[in-house]
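OP here, attaching both records as promised.
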Amino acid sequence: MIGQPSRAVPLQANPLVATSSLDEFAQAIRPIFGVLNLGLTGGQKGFRATANFRKLEHSGLYYGHYDGRLNVSIPHASFIAQGLTIGGSVDYSSGSGSAILRKDELPFPVFERSRIKLDFSEGHRHLAFCMRPDAVLSKYNAMLGIGGDRLLNLNHAAPPPAAQLNRIPPPAAGPA
């Protein structure tokens, strides 16, 4: 009998934490995401979190997998991020917008100083590309030729309505 194919785990060469303790999980991810509040819908029983993180020069790639309904609140983001749901769903809200995101849906980006609330479904898996705001602004300024005392500022505009969220199209069918 042929078994189920194993699912590759993103960033598995860069483990951050694998735990059934909410406190241990919070301690491990706090250096990446800053001040945050974590909770569980339905209690600690059956909770397990796995996180991998690859630090880059001014950014990092994060992978999270949560068994248990994890709730995350970040009152004042200290980063810029773009996430991607790869399994399960998340009820996502930031500032003046919210949406329920499912597999292969991209939320609106998280900007520095945003208030973020995430309610992850059981078995949720996601990737996030996190960037330091000063590094992003420095790159934009360099690309635009802005220097000296004139610096570009990020506009913290409202996110687009849920209907305008990006969906990743399925891969094109190959030859039959």
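Record two, same layout:
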Amino acid sequence: MNLVDLLENYKKYANGDLTSACKLEVEDEEINDFDFSKYDLNNSYFGGVQFCDCNFSNVYLSGSNFGGSSLIRCQFNNNELVKAEWDDVTISDTVYSNLKSKRSSFMYGKFNNVKFLNGTFEGCMFDNSSMDNVIFEKCKICSASFDGCTFSNVTFMDCLIETHKFDDIEGVFIR
């Protein structure tokens, strides 16, 4: 089954059509220049997938697992990411606007040239990730964990940061 057919069937199932019962599982694929904005990716699995130039605006991503995937030049706007597992992801040249993330895991991730704008990160884990040229702007960061992370030119601008201290950490700038 091709990706569009799989997404359409999953959309029907997510909207209550039990005759279309299916799982949304994609592994080790390359997906280029694809618009996911009209699909629901709740509880989906995209393992080891390379996404390039994809649009995820307004996509519900809670419970999703993108473990081991790469997101390159993708757009995220108005997304919910609750109890999601995005461990070991590589994210580069990507912007997240208005992301609401709660109890999600981004451990062992590689973030390069990433912007998080007006986001909320509550109880999220970024442990052991590397962040290079990352901007968090006007974000609320509450009970998030960054243990073991390496930072290079990471900026927190006008952020509300609760429970985690970034003072005197090399490579981190608070403005």
